[in-house]
Amino acid sequence: MADKTDKWDDSISGKYYVDRSCISCDACITAAPDNFVMNDDDGHALVSRQPANEEEEEQCKEALEGCPVEAIGDDGP
């Protein structure tokens, strides 16, 4: 489970976040390309945009569930 106290500061504030356990696997970017990007300088994914519609919300949920190291968190509504 992602740790809110260990999240990357460069993610956009909001419901979803990425913590420091991210291994840069690109799974979240594949699942939700409009919402996650890779920070190539630091070697981790981040939330670039919080979901703006139901389709993006579903994609972000898929990214969260598909993260192999559970680095994506969901703070709820």
Concise synopsis of the structure shown:
With 77 residues, the chain is α+β, with helices and mostly antiparallel strands.
Write up what this structure looks like.
- This protein is 23% helix and 18% strand.
- Strand 2 and strand 3 (44-47) form a beta hairpin.
- The chain has helices spanning 27-31, 54-66, and strands at residues 16-18, 36-39, 44-47, 72-74.
- The mean pLDDT is 96.
- A two-stranded antiparallel ribbon has the order 1-4. A two-stranded antiparallel ribbon has the order 2-3.
- With 77 residues, the protein is α+β, with helices and mostly antiparallel strands.
- The protein has one domain: Alpha-Beta Plaits, CATH 3.30.70.20.
Using the coordinates shown, work out and report the CATH topology: Alpha-Beta Plaits
Overall, the morphology is globular
Number of helices: 2
- Percent of residues in helices comes to 10-25%
- Radius of gyration from the CA trace? 11 Å
Arithmetic mean pLDDT: 96
Query: Which percent band covers the strand fraction?
Result: 15-25%
Q: Give me the count of strands.
A: 4
Topology summary:
Blueprint: E1 16-18, H1 27-31, E2 36-39, E3 44-47, H2 54-66, E4 72-74
Antiparallel strand pairs: 1-4, 2-3
